[in-house]
């Protein structure tokens, strides 16, 4: 019998914010909403599994730090990265299909300044790898690494360096070539996230790390940061309730999100982090059983495990539009 959830508004015992400088930086992106700060908890979650997962699926891959860390540290057999944004997808497609060395050399040989970057970005794109290079340029030159429409170049940047502030060609080339060394265990698909979750729904050897744009309850962060930001959050929670494999979701700490977690019988825990302005915030980690998250009390607890009866329904795509 299904038990009611208990809301436990307790204090966070572990209030220490992860220093991202202590976490290996593996992504070529400086990604808004990236999960580098979550890597220590990611390791705990994957190591808590009874067996090493066959596949980790990252349906909203973005900067891809979760997939890269999971594969590099052999926490999973392989990872499947999913991203719908054409620019971000171009980078992952390029580096996982044999174009990493070309992209690394293109970065190393580019003379970065405001004029050259501006000219390069408006050039017609003839191939995936050229689009990948332009995406890296925009990501490194734009304010906060934001690729969404309306974002512009850094003007002053760090120490008045402007577009040079975040342009580290040797570091970027090294990261991209490192990805190439692991590409036999990395797969990328430009696909609808919810469609892929449903595709792997009945596979118990697959785990999911789900970090959707934060737009539940009318939140604006996802809309401001990403080109593809509209997600059917209700449908996402429904799909997660039917997964055979394990999953965790990270979400904005908002009443609307807690309400969905309660409705579908999930546990939720707050975790401390810092945003790009270094303000201390909390995000929610949501899953079936968060017992592996030590030193953090649940704000939402479900004691009973139950199987959701699967309904015969047509495969449904999430609602995703470009701004």
From TrEMBL:
Pfam family, one: MethyltransfD12
InterPro entries: MeTrfase_D12, SAM-dependent_MTases_sf
GO biological process: DNA restriction-modification system; methylation; mismatch repair
Gene Ontology terms for molecular function: S-adenosyl-L-methionine binding; sequence-specific DNA binding; site-specific DNA-methyltransferase (adenine-specific) activity
Alphabetic keyword roster: Methyltransferase, S-adenosyl-L-methionine, Transferase
Highest taxon above the source species: Bacteria
Name of the protein: DNA methyltransferase
Species for this entry: Candidatus Endobugula sertula (Bugula neritina bacterial symbiont)
């Amino acid at each position: 019998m299904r038990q009611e959830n208990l809301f436990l508004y307790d204090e966070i015992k572990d209030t220490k914010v992860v220093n991202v400088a202590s976490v290996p930086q593996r992504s070529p992106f400086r990604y808004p909403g990236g999960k580098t700060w979550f890597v220590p908890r990611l390791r705990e979650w994957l190591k808590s599994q009874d067996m090493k997962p066959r596949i980790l699926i990252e349906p909203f891959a973005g900067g891809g730090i979760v997939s890269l860390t999971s594969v590099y540290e052999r926490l999973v057999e392989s990872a499947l990265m999913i991203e719908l944004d054409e620019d971000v997808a171009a980078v992952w497609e390029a580096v996982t299909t044999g174009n990493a060395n070309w992209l690394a050399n293109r970065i190393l040989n580019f003379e970065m300044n405001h004029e050259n970057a501006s000219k390069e970005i408006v050039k017609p794109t003839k191939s995936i790898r050229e689009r990948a290079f332009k995406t890296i340029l925009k990501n490194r030159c734009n304010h906060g690494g934001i690729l969404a429409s309306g974002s512009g170049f850094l003007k002053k940047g760090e120490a008045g360096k402007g577009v040079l502030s975040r342009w580290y060609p040797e570091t970027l080339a090294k990261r991209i070539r490192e990805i190439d060394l692991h590409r036999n265990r990395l797969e990328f698909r430009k696909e609808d996230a919810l469609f892929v979750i449903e595709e792997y729904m009945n596979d118990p050897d697959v785990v999911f790390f789900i970090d959707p744009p934060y737009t539940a309850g009318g939140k604006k962060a996802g809309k401001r940061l990403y080109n593809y930001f509209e997600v059917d959050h209700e449908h996402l929670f429904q799909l997660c309730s039917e997964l055979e494999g394990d999953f965790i979701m990270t979400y904005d700490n908002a009443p609307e999100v807690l309400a969905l977690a309660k409705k579908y019988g999930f546990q939720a825990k707050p975790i401390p982090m810092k945003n790009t302005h270094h303000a201390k915030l909390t995000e929610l980690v949501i899953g079936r059983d968060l017992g592996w998250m030590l030193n953090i009390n649940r704000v939402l607890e479900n004691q009973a495990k139950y199987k959701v009866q699967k309904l015969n329904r047509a495969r449904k795509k999430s609602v995703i539009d470009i701004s």
